[in-house]
Amino acid sequence: MTAEKDDRTSKGTTTDETATRERIDALQAEIVGLRMELARTRIEQWAGRLDDLELQYHLGRMEADERLSAALADVRHRIAKARARAENRGEAAEEAVEAITSGVEHAFDDLRQAMVRARDAVTH
After folding, report:
1. Among 13-22, 62-71, 89-98, 109-118, which range has the highest average pLDDT?
2. Other beta carbons less than 10 A from residue 104's beta carbon
3. Helix (H, G, I), strand (E, B), or coil: what is residue 55?
4. Which of 5, 14, 97, 107 qualifies as a cystine partner to 78, CB 3.0-4.6 A?
């Protein structure tokens, strides 16, 4: 009977070991699956962040374009106004040159400031 008992015990141990090994293999496969799911989730998070940054960039760019367009239009208007004043024969030449120079320089300063604000809007 001892031989039979040893035989049953060894078969029981082998069966237990097999079941344990199968359970370990199943858990390891589950771990691999969870790691893959975690990786996919992280990739999706990064893709979402990129989408947000792209949207912020485009909105900032649109705002910058609006500001620069307004500033450019203002500079063009001031240059046209300066030309008209320069062509006006009733105004002294020296006064016209000073007024034109001052107006155009002021317009370009405004344009520079608008460009700085636009750059800041896009980069921040």
Report:
1. 13-22
2. 15
3. helix
4. 107
Rounded to 10°, the helix 2-87/93-123 angle is: 170
Half-sphere exposure of 105 (CA within 13 A, CB side): 6
Cα separation values, 20 from 7, 10, 29, 32, 93, Å: 20, 15, 14, 18, 102
> Rounded to an integer, what distance in angstroms lies between the CA atom of residue 24 and that of residue 40?
24
Q: Which residues does 48 contact at the CB level (< 8 Å), separation at least 6?
A: none
How many angstroms separate the CA atoms of 100 and 91, rounded?
Answer: 12
Burial letters 57-75, b for 16+ CB under 10 A, else e? eeebeeebeebeeebeeeb
35: confidence class by pLDDT, cuts 50, 70, 90: very high
- Per-residue pLDDT tens digits for 18-29: 999 999 999 999
The tens digit of pLDDT for each residue in 38-48 reads 999 999 999 99
Whether pLDDT at 8 is above 70: no
